[in-house]
């Protein structure tokens, strides 16, 4: 049997059915049309397979010798002689998709795993249990009442004055340090109850006194006498004391011996410099709080806390605007009715609510922010709660329902009857058909569509100038067509001379007929043959 008529007929089928498929939206489940993709048609056991040899294209895995040969695939490069995806990208249908990052969806069973150092936990990229995300890294997540010692990446309990300690960071009282294994007030301060009271010291010289007390000053009204200036122990302090320019000392405490601004331990101290004429002096002076615990609250030092991380006071949660330290969980949380995004808490908006961006409408699926209101994206409608009472669920949107007809797709918004593809409950004259899958929710939708009649099957063949092959061979109104799988239609084999040949034994349709796409089913066609002259 000659291949020429078959090749021409298959080409006509491809052109006609691709036209029908283009009427569908890209977000509509078109499983019945998927076999018509050019890549499948030219490679799946078809006589057209040899065309792919003449029109070579770059794919993942194609041989290469330099990176420029892989430019046709974004985010790919030539690795070990093959075009492969770059680091932090993985291959999906001959494209390179970026590997998921923090709080993005992932799948451990596939190449869609997480970027280092995150792990795929319950389908979301996150830090391992007991760790929290901080500046793209996973740090030990310390509970309330403990502090992270970065050089060990371990949590240690915070300590009050007089309690045992191992690191300065454990001592939470202002102007305290770990000395001889205990939290003590630093030199230059005295202990008073649970506080370290600073002894006012001028950097240079002795502190001027008035009636036995240092001269107090502030930034607005209380000024120092001539020859002195107002010194603030910490930059954030509102009041200071007057000092002469004679002897150089740390504002609070004593400077570290043999230390200057080039080798000062920045975690617990800071550089203090002073210039007299052309001579500059530098000292390494103690901080009231370690750099890892810069938040000052009621005479204690605290570390900043990320979203859902342990906290003790509200001030620790200020890195996320609008968040607070929840009393019950002692973690930084967003208020009820809002969600965490970036560095702030944003209000959750339902369909019809006000919004600033489409991310505000993330409570539902297939929604967007249009003119400040959460709405369904173009071509979608609010999902009915039940298809009987027409009440609406104000979270999700679904694509407009449609049924296939011989002339194209027909929107069924006004005649929408839901059904279960596994247990159809459609009325007489209708059949249950899956028409759309919501990928974001992994949910499929089926509706009752009109059952095609024998005349509509005939029209499919007639469109190509052919006749339908009947299952019982009778030209009766109750006859049914012969159905056939779409692909593979042929099996290509090598003959004794190494040339391609068609094995017709695997053809489903009778001799002199061919399988033509059936729009009323999925991955199925009907058998048609040429009209007899």
Automatic annotation (TrEMBL):
Keyword Lipoprotein on entry: no
Species of provenance: Steinernema carpocapsae
Name the UniProt record assigns to this protein: EGF-like domain-containing protein
Pfam families: EB
Domain EGF-like: 69-97, 105-139, 164-197, 354-398
Residues making up the signal peptide according to the UniProt record: 1-21
InterPro entries: Cys_repeat_1, EB_dom, EGF
Transmembrane region(s): none
Keywords noted in UniProt: Signal
């Amino acid at each position: 049997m000659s291949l020429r008529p078959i090749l021409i007929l298959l080409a006509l089928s491809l052109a006609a059915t691709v036209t029908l498929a283009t009427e569908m939206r890209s977000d509509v489940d078109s499983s019945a049309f998927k076999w018509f993709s050019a890549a499948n048609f030219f490679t799946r056991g078809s006589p057209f397979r040899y065309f792919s040899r003449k029109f070579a294209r770059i794919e993942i895995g194609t041989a290469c010798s330099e990176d420029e040969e892989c430019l046709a695939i974004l985010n790919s490069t030539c690795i070990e002689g093959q075009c492969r995806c770059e680091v932090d990208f993985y291959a999906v249908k001959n494209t390179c998709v970026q590997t998921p990052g923090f709080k993005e969806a992932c799948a451990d069973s596939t190449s869609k795993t997480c970027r280092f150092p995150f792990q795929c936990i319950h389908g979301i990229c996150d830090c391992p249990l007991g760790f929290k995300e901080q500046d793209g890294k996973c740090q030990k997540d310390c509970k309330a009442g403990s502090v992270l010692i970065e050089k060990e990446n371990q949590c240690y309990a915070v300590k009050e004055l007089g309690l045992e300690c191992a690191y300065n960071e454990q001592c939470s009282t202002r102007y305290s340090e770990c000395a001889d294994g205990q939290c003590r007030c630093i030199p230059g301060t005295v202990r008073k109850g649970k506080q370290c009271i600073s002894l006012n010291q001028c950097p240079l010289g002795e502190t001027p006194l008035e009636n036995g007390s240092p001269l107090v000053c502030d930034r607005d009204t209380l000024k120092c006498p001539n020859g002195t200036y107002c010194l603030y122990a910490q930059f954030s302090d509102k009041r200071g004391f007057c000092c002469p320019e004679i002897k150089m000392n740390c504002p609070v405490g004593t400077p570290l011996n043999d230390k200057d601004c080039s080798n000062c331990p920045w975690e617990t101290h800071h550089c203090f410099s002073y210039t007299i004429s052309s001579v500059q002096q530098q000292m390494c002076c103690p901080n009231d709080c370690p750099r890892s615990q810069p938040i000052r609250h009621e005479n204690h030092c605290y570390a900043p806390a990320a979203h859902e991380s342990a906290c003790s006071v509200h001030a620790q949660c200020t890195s996320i605007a609008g968040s607070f330290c929840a009393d019950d969980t002692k973690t930084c949380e967003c208020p009820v009715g809002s969600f965490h995004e970036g560095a702030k808490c944003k209000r959750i908006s339902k369909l019809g609510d006000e919004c600033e961006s489409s991310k505000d409408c993330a409570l539902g699926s297939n929604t967007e922010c249009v003119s400040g209101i959460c709405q369904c994206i173009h071509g979608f409608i609010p999902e009915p709660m039940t298809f009987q009472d027409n009440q609406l669920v104000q979270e999700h949107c679904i694509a407009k329902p449609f049924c296939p007809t011989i002339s194209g797709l027909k929107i069924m918004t006004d005649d929408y009857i839901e059904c279960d593809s596994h247990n159809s409950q459609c009325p007489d004259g209708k059949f249950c058909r899956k028409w759309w899958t919501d990928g974001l929710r992994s949910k499929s939708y089926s509706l009752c569509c009109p059952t095609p009649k024998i005349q509509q099957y005939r029209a499919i063949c007639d469109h190509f100038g052919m006749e339908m092959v009947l299952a019982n061979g009778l030209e009766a109104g109750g006859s049914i067509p012969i159905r056939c799988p779409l692909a593979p239609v042929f099996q290509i084999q090598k003959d004794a001379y190494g040339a391609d040949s068609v094995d017709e034994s695997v053809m489903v349709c009778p001799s002199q007929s061919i399988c033509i796409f059936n729009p009323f089913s999925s991955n199925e066609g009907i058998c048609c043959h040429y009209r007899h002259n």
